[in-house]
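Most newcomers find our protein records easier to grasp once they have seen one. A learned vocabulary of local backbone shapes supplies the integers on the structure line. An example says more than a description, so a record of this kind follows:
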Amino acid sequence: MTSMVAGSSLLVELLSGPRPAEWDSLREAAELRLEGRDLPTTQDEDWKYTDLRPLAALTLGPAPEGAIDLAPLLLSEMVGTRQVFVNGRHAPHASCASAVPAGVRFLPMSTASEACHALGSVKNGATPELFEDLNSARFQDGAVILVPRNLKVALPLHLLFVTHTDTPCAVFPRVLVVLEAGAELELVEEHHGQGTYLSCPVVEIRLAEGAILRHERVQRESPEAFHIGTLKAEVGRNAQYHSRTLSFGARFSRQHPWVHLAEGAEGTLDGLALLEGTQVADTHSFMHHAEPNAASHQLHKCIVDGRARAIFNGQVRVAPGAQGTDAKQQSRNLLLSEAARVDTKPQLEIYADDVKCSHGATVGQLDPEELFYLQSRGLDADDARNLLTYGFAADVLQRIPVASLRRALRRLVMARTQAGSLGDLA
């Protein structure tokens, strides 16, 4: 089968490489759903603020093989707990799982056929979105993480996906994370790149009763790249899923996290987008309170400069019978130029009556009184502006538990806000 999306130029042949038989049913179902479908347009409600015509204009081929220098991207704390994928393929020379505890499965998907039957099993009750189906039909490899019952993994695990190309191409990273009852894990997922390409990752997460997953997601794609990611998490009874998504790269990026909360579960979806030039960052989140006494928290921040644009549509659904729900959602946005734009729409959909739910959105510029105060204490106008801009992002960054990653991202934000001239704020 060679069809991908009828009517668009995203016609990519099925990629060569590992293909366990367990993937066949997933691929075939996705291919059937793709038949006759085209890219979303601004006439589609969920895409009304995002124009994909620049992506449709590209002719994307398979990602090439090639060797690149990965040393600058490797985190020092995770020498023996990382899996690296370059242009959609596992990079064994850069990967090392020697420090992963016994009993934990942390390996390439192409060598984990016993887990592949679980791919696509996290469902949200709706037809998968087009880009999720693209991944299912075309993914070449990915990572599998299985943590057994009551095992608390002390060291963070690192997933690094790198795309490096001289010609436009498409890559489809895939991740499956399964934590059995009482298990605990810290996961860092990073996406980097160089060149023009589409990165279309899908992450599936299943947390059994009492499991805890802390998930740091960093998008630092090429300035010419398109990054469209799907995350689907089923959080079991009294389990916890805490995610933080940091978006700094890509010409266009879209994150679509979907979290299903069982009774007593807790879910966090925090985000920070730092945009400049003509970048576009779009987040469409869905937090589903399916059962009683679950709690959710969302804080999404955007710093938008130049002619960049940020979109946030966060939906919280409280199902009938989900009494005792506690849901909080905040969208906070900082505009640094007259041409910058933010479209934000937090949503609550409540079908239970004993709940505590709140949401809010702010879009504004730097506070003149705060600028005046800093200038009265000796800072010039530019330094005062830069310090306040950095401070807007700092509370999200300071909670990153991996020190080397936290330092690297703080340096990046300081460079983008020009706060580095103020000294080491990290």
